[in-house]
Amino acid sequence: MRRVSGVRAVGVLLALAALLLGAACGREGGPGAAAPTGLTYPVAQNVQVPGSATFAKIQQAGRVKMGVKNDQPGLGVQDPTTGQYTGFDVEMGRMIAAGLGIPADRIDYVVVPSAAREDAISRGDVDYYVGTYTINDNRKQRVGFAGPYFLAGQDLLVRADDPSITGPTTLQGKRVCSVTGSTPIQRVRQQNLTANVVEFQNYSQCVDQLIANQVDAVTTDDAILKGFAAQDPQRLKVVGQVFSQEPYGVGVARDDVAFRAKVNDLIQQAETDGTWQRIYDATLGKSGTPATPPAIQRY
Ligand code: GLU
């Protein structure tokens, strides 16, 4: 390996310090500030969404209430020190806000776990939700979905030194952890993959259990599991046998058809003008897995 000279190392350190200082002194500051990824989106002017109650609310407030996750690396995560949110889902949400005329510093982040999403959206606690939210007919009875903006699939996270779990059919007798109200936990039960299912509100809690040897596997979307594995590759690995399709949608009020159409337009635009790819490359794509935007399914 090539050694970095002392002078260069100091130079790099200085540059880093300048970057950090720059970030700390940034004009916006606080959780609403631009993400450390440096991604920004042009804020649309004179936006109108005729017939949309959600948009009327956003416009009146001059702010948007965005439902997110805060513990899913690469997708939706909150930095405990800066309070800033980052990740693919969060960036999609910021892009949508900008398209609705709302800049990043006027977004209020509302953390909603999987089990509470339909309630939060239908009550109007959030204007829209971006957080690994699988589009399906069951959920469509209570909420609407724009998208899909990403295609994931169910997989397994296990301890790196465990060769015994190689796919869904090897889970019998194993302790498997997932999240209340998620599609993966339903699938484990429906397909009787194991009788020993452990349930939490958040995936990070399941991962803690896995590391502590209290469960043998965590199951959810590959995109989520890869983020956890990347944080702790010594102890964790993703099995890599995907056994479902999880198309991610933006959750919106079920009957606000005009708002759903507008969000679909904004996702479509981001997919065609390269914004989607820029977001992916700066977030999830850092893991090295390439991806392209999926076709939007309007209904
Ligand atoms: N995509 C799945 C779901 O919507 C799992 C991830 C999650 O719980 O957010 O249930």
UniProtKB/TrEMBL annotation:
Signal peptide: 1-23
Protein name: Glutamate ABC transporter substrate-binding protein
Solute-binding protein family 3/N-terminal domain: residues covered: 63-287
Keywords attached to this entry: Signal, Transport
InterPro entries, per database record: Bact_solute-bind_prot3, Solute-binding_3/MltF_N
Family recorded in the similarity comment: Belongs to the bacterial solute-binding protein 3 family.
Gene3D superfamilies, per the entry: Periplasmic binding protein-like II
